[in-house]
Specification:
Number of strands of chain A: 0
Mean pLDDT of chain B: 85
Largest interface: A-B, 19 and 13 residues
Radius of gyration of chain A: 23 Å
Strand content of chain B: under 5%
Helix content of chain A: 55-70%
CATH class of chain A: Mainly Alpha
CATH architecture of chain A: Up-down Bundle
Number of domains of chain A: 1
Number of helices of chain B: 4
Number of strands of chain B: 0
Number of domains of chain B: 1
CATH superfamily of chain A: Cytochrome c oxidase-like, subunit I domain
Distance between the termini of chain B: 55 Å
Mean pLDDT of chain A: 94
Strand content of chain A: under 5%
Low-confidence stretches of chain B: 1-6
Oligomer: heterodimer
Low-confidence stretches of chain A: none
Number of helices of chain A: 16
Shape of chain B: flat
Radius of gyration of chain B: 17 Å
Structural class of chain B: mainly alpha
Order of helices and strands of chain B: HHHH
Order of helices and strands of chain A: HHHHHHHHHHHHHHHH
Structural class of chain A: mainly alpha
Chain lengths: 527, 98
């Protein structure tokens, strides 16, 4: 194959219609778009982390550290930025854009211009959200869920923020359409469905969820805007509306959105584990179908967010049952990853550290999810820190660590540089310690009855809040070391070979960083 | 990449067919309004959703030419319809029994 030629022009140097910054902003190259998304995502992630640190700092001890209104705004903005600007677009737009076409042997996605358009929509939505933080009226204070009827009556800039999220949704829908079409139409000769890398399978399942669930969020947000601007009472009980209907509509999107965040994250782990265990993935078809299983069953479990909302008992029992069902395909994935590692010749490089941590933390997040998926414990724990802990174990311990795994796994391919392993592992260790101090304390706090969303608390919760806050500092140090290490490697790291890890998927058959056209000649998949 | 048969062909339906579909849509519109006026208890929503599905189906199959597409595209649409039905059904497991 001619794809590993030593003399080539990487996509960073490819000549297009535009020069300078416009060669990035107007580029339709999936790799350039992926890198731009990655930069934007990590920027918003950094802002979200700073706001998170501020929340923890304000909760370090009982008493008023920041005012309650400011506190409400800070945790709302932390949620809105982390959820809508970082983790929902997250893996698909950054790593999916960069690697999907390469993994299936294509030159680009099916609709490159549409891909560029999604970036601009994302930027427009993000601008509206950021603008809502600073415009007169103040940042949103509703939490990231915009629960009605408060979100209809609140004085803060809800309309602006909601419009921003509405716009962001279109970016997500169009990315979903693009990926599903790409996977159907642009696979290289011989790349049959069951030869697809598992990351591609998860992007496929995610694409469908983006396509089918996001419109529900869009219409829900339009209802909020109509309520605020024109006084239409869809969710306002004083006008005959139903606030629980808002929760139904919101979670009909937002629970599948959890899978938009976690499914491609699982795909990354399914790529990394076999490479560093030096084995084929155990149960390829089971892992592939479990992605589809999670995507389809996960669409019908939204009601478990509403067990304490006043929903009917019938609905609560049905949703609790389906919630237990969705644990089955997730469990299949975990068992298959562990079985892949069994008797593997495991190479202790940095990516596998993050991947194994994903399995550990996501398992805790998943199993605690079963506790709160049961009706009785849920009624006790729903309004407490237990939920905050569970949520962060799944989102940060799961999707967040998968992004860190992907960064360390694909960094040489994306940027053509190697990073030193030792600082990466030190950063990982500190992050792991900080993460568990920060969030495991919250499980105990929640179990003891500490309510969530409160800006102050009785002195008996002080010790665990202190541990949690110290954990947040340790976590931040770990993140800083990881970020510093990768940033330094970006400029000073040694050049990366085409395949530094011994990977078997197509991205490792082409030079690092990839050429503009990805492949000198279209690969043909034989075995 | 070559275009497949469904992409390269034009399908021209007769005015007669379009007229009948339009007439059917008008009849179904009258039915929708009638159901809303009569208030057939709590099943009126279900009935209207059914009528709306039939109307959307007629538009999709005849005006938007889904009739001439292959089984895969029809299957995808059917899957979406089933998912939507389940979502609405699950919501009603709350609304009806609250």
């Amino acid at each position: 194959m001619e794809n590993t030629a030593s003399e080539y022009e990487s996509f960073y140097h490819g000549k297009g219609k535009y020069k300078g910054i416009l060669s990035w902003l107007m580029s339709t190259d999936h790799k350039r778009i992926g890198i731009q998304y990655l930069v934007a995502l990590l920027t918003f992630f950094s802002v979200g982390v700073l706001l998170g640190l501020l929340i923890r700092l304000s909760l370090i001890a009982p008493g008023k550290f920041i005012g309650q209104e400011t506190y409400n705004r800070v945790f709302s903005v932390h949620g809105i930025i982390m959820i809508f600007l970082f983790i929902i677009p997250g893996v698909p737009v950054a790593f999916g854009n960069f690697f999907l076409p390469i993994l299936i042997g294509a030159r680009d996605v099916a609709f490159p211009r549409l891909n560029r358009f999604t970036w601009w929509i994302y930027l427009a939505g993000a601008t509206l959200v950021v603008f809502s933080l600073f415009a007169a009226g103040g940042a949103p204070d509703t939490g990231w869920t915009f629960y009605a009827p408060y979100s209809i009556r609140a004085k803060a800039n809800i309309t602006l923020a909601v419009t921003g999220v509405f716009v962001l949704g279109f970016s997500s829908i169009l990315t979903g359409i693009n990926f599903v079409t790409t996977i159907h139409r642009l696979r290289a000769p011989g790349m049959t469905w069951f030869k697809l890398p598992l990351f591609v399978w998860t992007l496929y399942a995610t694409g469908w969820v983006q396509l089918l669930a996001t419109p529900v969020l869009a219409i829900t947000l339009v209802f909020i805007i109509l309520g605020r601007v024109f006084g239409v009472g869809f969710f306002d009980p004083s006008k005959g509306g139903d606030p629980i209907l808002y929760e139904h509509l919101f979670w009909t999107y937002s629970h599948p959105a959890v899978y938009i965040m976690v499914l491609p994250a699982m795909g990354i782990i399914s790529e990394v584990i076999p490479v560093f265990a030096r084995k084929k993935i155990f149960g390829y078809k089971a892992v592939a179908f479990s992605a589809i299983g999670i995507a389809s069953v996960g669409y019908f479990v939204w009601g478990h967010h509403m067990f304490t909302s006043g929903m009917s008992d019938t609905a609560r029992i049905i949703f609790s049952f389906i919630t237990f069902l969705v644990a089955v395909p997730s469990g299949i994935k975990i068992f298959n990853w562990v079985s892949t590692l069994y008797k593997g010749s495991i190479v202790g490089s940095a990516p596998i550290y993050f991947a194994l941590t994903f399995i550990f933390l996501f398992s805790i997040g998943g199993l605690t999810g079963l506790i709160i998926g049961s009706l009785e414990p849920n009624l006790q724990l729903h309004g407490t820190y237990f939920i905050v802990a569970h949520f962060h174990y799944v989102m940060f311990g799961g999707a967040g660590f998968a992004i860190l795994t992907a960064l360390h796994y694909w960094f040489p391919k994306m940027f053509g540089r190697m990073y030193p392993e030792r600082p990466a592992k030190i950063g990982w260790f500190i992050l792991f310690i900080g993460f568990n101090l920060l969030y495991f304390s919250m499980f105990i706090l929640g179990y003891e009855g500490m309510p969530r969303r409160y800006f102050d608390y009785p002195p008996r919760y002080f010790p665990l809040h202190l541990v949690s806050t110290i954990g947040s500092w340790i976590l931040a140090i770990g993140l800083a070391i990881i970020a510093g290490n990768l940033l330094r490697a970006l400029f000073k790291g040694p050049k990366a070979p085409a395949d530094p890890w011994g990977g078997r998927t197509l991205e490792w058959t082409i030079p690092s960083p990839p050429p503009t056209e990805n492949f000198a000649e279209t690969p043909v998949i034989r075995d | 990449m070559t275009l497949n048969a469904t992409e390269s062909q034009d399908h021209i339906s007769s005015y007669r067919t379009y007229f009948f579909i339009w007439a059917a849509l008008m009849l179904l519109l009258v039915a929708t309004i009638a159901v809303a006026k009569v208030e057939v208890s709590r099943y009126s929503v279900l009935l209207n959703l059914f009528i709306a599905t039939v109307k959307a189906g007629l538009v999709l199959f005849f005006f938007m030419h889904l009739k001439y597409e292959n089984w895969f595209l029809k299957g995808v649409l059917f899957m979406v319809l089933v998912m939507l039905a389940i979502v609405i059904g699950l919501t009603f497991s709350d609304v009806w029994y609250r």
